[in-house]
Design brief:
- By secondary structure, the protein is an alpha+beta fold.
- It has one domain (2-164): Gyrase A, domain 2.
- Helices cover 44% and strands 14% of the residues.
- A three-stranded antiparallel β-sheet has the order 1-5-2. A two-stranded antiparallel ribbon has the order 3-4.
- Helix 4 packs antiparallel against helix 5 and helix 5 (138-154) crosses helix 6.
- The protein is flat, with a radius of gyration of 18 Å.
- The protein starts with a strand and ends in a 6-residue tail after the last helix.
- 13% of the residues are buried.
- Bound molecules: flavin-adenine dinucleotide.
- Flavin-adenine dinucleotide (FAD) binds next to helix 4.
Length: 170
Amino acid sequence: MTFYVQAPIFVFREFMRHRMASYNEESGRYRELNPVFYVPAATRNLQQVGKPGAYDFLPGTPEQSELVRAETERTSREAYAAYKRMLDAGVAREVARIVLPLNIYSSMYVTVNARSLMNFLSLRTKREGTHFPSFPQREIEMCAEKMEDLWAELMPLTYAAFGTNGRVAP
Ligand SMILES: Cc1cc2nc3c(=O)[nH]c(=O)nc-3n(C[C@H](O)[C@H](O)[C@H](O)COP(=O)(O)OP(=O)(O)OC[C@H]3O[C@@H](n4cnc5c(N)ncnc54)[C@H](O)[C@@H]3O)c2cc1C
């Protein structure tokens, strides 16, 4: 299966730890990157509680949500303006891009077989009652959920077996 994924670079960094997929990502060397940045929604939980490896996340205060929104937008705009200034001065894209933050969007094709996708889903989604609970970052989990929905339509029998097996790859 091949999925087309658009996500911020901090999500791609987590994706690419999954070696059993192959990745084909857009180039920041051969074309100018668009000013598309991830800004967490006000509903994004902000407070980390619990122990390492099994953190839970609770809603932030309205002040924290506003601070995250404002600071993320401000730094994204400033970084992109610096990127553009360098491009306008004739600096190569591969050099100018080094000032861009991890929340800028990229895109890629991810090709993966069903067994490796199951391994990915069991690690990058958090579900009650799974045999091996995982505690992924919410943003990669959002991608994983969309991939899971597509896969469930494509391979309903295999998908059902995955659930019966406690969401563990065979
Ligand atoms: C909640 C969470 C937190 C994480 N935190 C961190 C962190 O703080 N720091 C960090 O560095 N990483 C972190 N990771 C990444 C994690 O360590 C794995 O790299 C990632 O989940 C990929 O898992 P994988 O190796 O099973 O997947 P894949 O690379 O897709 O491999 C799938 C399976 O194939 C086999 N396999 C693949 N390649 C080889 C090989 N070369 N030799 C032998 N067997 C192979 C293994 O059985 C492996 O389980 C985290 C992951 C999760 C889910």
